[in-house]
Write a structure and sequence with these properties.
heterodimer, A: alpha+beta, 14 strands, globular, B: alpha/beta, 5-stranded parallel beta sheet, two-stranded antiparallel ribbon, 13% strand
Chain lengths: 333, 270
């Protein structure tokens, strides 16, 4: 089901959204930094943006979060956050990334903290503004087919809104006064605008048979060359919308009886990521960690590539390592 | 990592070699919990907190300051012999910190002349180094100064029979966890964040300032060449970058190996 919203009604639309939860949307924080921030001033809203540095995964898997209150006699108690949230302005690549995270966190052993947030969050997609670092058409993530409640396709002075869930339908039902049905010219324009958007995604990564190529290129010189300039700082993982590793730490209180178990995002580029009890580290060197990261991103989770082509790891790498170029180097095309 | 606690109230000492005593001060800065925390230990020596001192066997010795004189070295060896665990607190004790800035660049004699105007080594000074250069160190708490939360958690861990958990990753991680704009990417600032030990919660980059490396480089993981290259690309010259790296980390192998500054007597850096 599709509806039409003229841009002049956007502020009105957002005030209706706020009935469903606290609205977070892209806000510009620095020259290359957009961030999903609580929208307190409509003028700050930036629906035309390239990419946020920190992906929307931060709403489901918090960068740092408390998990359990611990007590040596009484056991533990979960700390669950069930506040209602509306994420406005999520791009297709990021929605596809959330779908990937869902497979990990909502499988047969759902992660309570992730699931609670996911159940209490409304996701509203918006058409993206591709730049030279986007390669989502290569990874099959330039369109979101599911994983959103509403998707706002920008067409000139209006949005063609696709309803993607029952929750989305409920929102639409609240907005009757500012929505209209789509007409034939809308559909025509929609096709034109969509075709133009896809044309702007010019960077191409050949992913055909990439897993074989990577498996066979374990000893390729490209890994060492890039490991030599890599800091191992973890930025690429931490800005990646599909990275899902976390590290758990217990903090004891003064009485040595009560404490807190917390987790934070981890990164496979960090030295302790593959360290296990007994002091063995599966990937002690940076080159092994780099090879592992590229392998992980180019592997499949239930028939979906683990990379959505958002370009963040390239844009935010302090050593200027270019994800696509490294893979091209290994492929030797 | 764990250790065996022999005494319910571990006997501890807090000692100072060459440094500003800021790390001892950071322990005392734990005002809200200080009394309750220290009551869990049997304190035999803590120069900055009390003039009382007892020369005895210890479960844990905390040492701040670098080994910069013969005298420091004697004290250190004595402490090591009499302690089950030795914890280096602060950058000076870990790697020499700021005092090591001129190591391998100018001789002790030149430094004596520069600073004191005499050629003789009247203080029996050594090249400033961390305590680990001379004795076995069981744990390190980095920082210049150390972070009080980190100290608190380290004390609690030790009380619980665990070794302190110290970040083994760079400041960049904390910038990302906080969503701070990267000052390298955004503004081409000479930030050392990618190679410096985290734990400060990216305090400076969070305020838009470039990291100057006060928590020290990550041992065995620092890619100093990459830092040099990254800052070169952004228009900084080698001398500036190397001096910046040496400010807190002159004793780190890979920073030491980046090149030797040709220092002449009396030259002052900008």
């Amino acid at each position: 089901m599709y509806k039409k919203l003229f841009k002049k009604h956007l502020e009105n639309f957002i005030s209706i959204l706020s009935k469903f939860g606290v609205v977070y949307a892209p806000v510009k924080k620095a020259s290359k930094l957009y961030d999903f921030t609580e929208l307190t001033d409509f003028k700050e809203l930036q629906l035309k943006y390239t990419r946020t540095m920190i992906p929307p995964k931060k709403f489901f898997l918090k960068p740092k979060e408390p998990l359990y209150l611990l007590n040596k006699d009484k056991g533990f108690k979960e700390i669950v956050d069930d506040s209602k949230t509306v994420l406005l302005g999520v791009h297709s690549c990021d929605i596809n990334a959330i779908n990937l995270l869902d497979r990990v966190y909502l499988n047969q052993f759902p992660d309570l903290f992730y699931k609670t947030r996911r159940d209490n969050t409304i996701i509203i997609g918006v058409s993206c503004e591709p730049d030279e670092n986007c390669f989502c058409t290569s990874t099959g993530s330039s369109h979101a087919l599911r994983g959103f409640d509403l998707f706002m396709h920008e067409v000139d002075d209006r949005y063609i809104i696709r309803v993607g869930s029952l929750k989305g339908f409920q929102i639409i039902s609240e907005c009757k006064n500012i929505l209209a049905d789509t007409s034939l010219p809308d559909i025509k324009e929609f096709k034109r605008v969509e075709a133009e958007r896809i044309k702007r995604i010019s960077l191409n990564l050949n992913v055909n048979g990439i897993q074989d190529i990577l498996d066979l290129s374990h000893d390729h010189s490209a890994w060492q060359e890039n490991a030599d300039i890599c800091f191992g700082c973890g930025t690429c993982n931490l800005v990646c919308p599909t990275c899902r590793c976390y590290d758990v730490v217990d903090y004891l209180k003064l009485d040595l009886k009560n404490g807190l178990r917390a987790r934070r995002w981890d990164s496979c580029m960090l030295r302790q990521h593959a360290l296990v009890a007994g002091g063995l580290n599966f990937r002690p060197t940076r080159v092994e960690r780099l090879y592992n990261r590229f392998n992980c991103k180019m592997s499949f989770s239930e028939d979906s590539l683990n990379c959505v082509g958002c370009g963040r790891c390239t844009v935010y790498c302090p050593a200027d390592i270019n994800f696509v170029e490294v893979l091209n180097q290994v492929r030797e095309d | 990592m764990t250790w065996i606690i022999k005494n319910e109230k571990p006997k501890i000492g807090v000692f100072s070699l060459t440094g500003c005593a800021g790390d001892q001060l950071m322990i005392l800065n734990l005002e809200d919990t200080l009394i309750e925390l220290l009551a869990k230990f049997d304190i035999k020596s803590f120069q900055e907190a009390s003039s009382y001192s007892e020369n005895t066997k210890l479960d844990i010795a905390f040492i701040e300051g670098s080994v910069s004189t013969d005298h420091d070295l004697k004290i250190l060896k004595n402490i090591r012999e009499n302690s089950s665990l030795l914890v280096a607190i602060g950058d000076c004790a870990i790697n020499g910190c700021v005092q090591a800035m001129r190591n391998n660049q100018t001789s002790i004699a030149e430094r004596m002349l520069d600073v004191y105007g005499v050629k003789d080594n009247v203080y029996n000074a050594l090249e400033p180094k961390g305590v680990g250069e001379y004795v076995k160190v069981d744990a390190e708490i980095p920082g210049c100064p150390i972070e009080k939360e980190e100290v608190f958690n380290a004390f609690i861990s030790l009380l619980n029979g665990d070794m302190p958990l110290i970040p083994d990753y760079p400041v960049c991680v904390e910038c990302k966890l906080n969503g701070y704009p990267c000052v390298i990417i955004e503004e081409s600032k000479p930030c050392l964040g990618p190679i410096i030990t985290a734990g400060c919660d990216a305090r400076c980059p969070g305020l838009g300032l470039d990291c100057i490396g006060c928590r020290g480089a990550i041992r065995g993981e620092t890619n100093a060449k990459a830092e040099l290259e990254t800052l070169r690309k952004r228009g900084y010259n080698d001398k500036y970058i190397i001096n910046r790296l040496r400010f807190f980390a002159g004793n780190f192998e890979d920073i030491k190996n980046l090149g030797v500054r040709e220092a002449s007597k009396g030259e002052r850096d900008e």
